[in-house]
Amino acid sequence: MNRLWLMLAALGGFSGVALGAFAAHGLRAQLSPAYLATFQTGVHYQLIHSLALLALAGFGAQLGRLGLWAARAFVLGTVLFSGSLYLLTLTATPQLGMITPLGGLAFLFGWACLFLAGWRQAKTP
């Protein structure tokens, strides 16, 4: 389990930095300020959840199934939330914004799984 999440965290971090640089240098003249901010929001959430995935790669085995579900939710959330924001801004298709909240729900589900895993850890002697 750890190897997969470590690789996905690294991929998310790498592509998040690359996309952030692409937005700052390559898209600044192409996108409106609002769309550029939307793109950067996608980058921001991708990087945050890549770090969370990295933590799960290190501690996920101790968290059991809840850690596994959190990792899955963070990957799904990144694809749906950040991915929809990237596509929305690059294609100027506002309808893609309907997908974004599903990614947000996946992120929330992942954090809830981590909370429950922590609660269970505290109860275990």
UniProtKB/TrEMBL annotation:
This is Uncharacterized membrane protein YgdD, TMEM256/DUF423 family. It comes from Chitinimonas taiwanensis DSM 18899. The keyword Transferase does not apply. PANTHER family: TRANSMEMBRANE PROTEIN 256 (PTHR43461). The keyword Transmembrane applies. It comes from the Bacteria. The chain crosses the membrane at residues 44-61, 73-92, 98-119. It is found in: Membrane.
